[in-house]
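anyone seen this seq b4? input:
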Amino acid sequence: MPDSHASALDQYQIGLTLRRLRSGKQLTLSRLAAETGLSTALLSKLESERMIPTLHTLSKICRVYGVSLSHFFSDPKRHSLSITRKGHLVAIRGSHEKVRQIPLHYDQIGSNRCGASLFEFPPKIRVSASEPGQGLSCVIYVVEGRLDLNIGGDKDLLDAGDCACIDTDNVVMWGSATHMPCQILLVKV
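predicted toks r here
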C-alpha cells in the first residue's frame, strides 16, 4: 500500500542521511541493529528508502548517532554562505584598549550572527572575557602564541593548536601568557 506522505518526505532524503550518518560513524548495519534493537532488514529498507521510518524508530537511531530528529527534517532549500574577506574585517577595541576583537561575519543588519571572532592579545595582557553570572559558552582555538586561561581561579595554558570548549558561569580571564602576542579564534555556541 503506497504511503500518501512519501512524496512530502522525499525532499528530506532520510535514507541517504541515515546511510551517511552510519558511514561517518563507521558502523555496519548489524552493529547499528545491535545498538538500536532494530533488525538489519529494517535498517536496510530505511537506508534504501524502501520504507519510511516512524518517529519512534528514527528516535532510536538518533540516540546512537547523537543527533536530534530535526537533523532529518531541516529545510533542504535553506542554504546560506557568507564570505568575509580579510580586507573587510574591522577590529573592535575590547575593554582594554590594546586587545582587539575582530568579528568574522556580519549579516545585513550588522550583527555578528554566527558568533565567530578573532581575538588578538598583546604580550602579557590579560582581560576579562565574562562577568560574574554572565556565563560564557564558546569554543576557542589558539591560532598563535600561548593563551593564559583562568576560569573561576582554575588556570590553564594553551599553546598554538590547542582547543578548549567552555561552558561556564564563572568569571573567565584570558590573555597572552608570554612576551609574544597571542591570537585565538572564538566561536560562541
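Helices lie at 6-10, 14-25, 29-36, 40-47, 55-65, 70-73. The chain has two domains: 6-73, 86-188. kinda curious what u guys think
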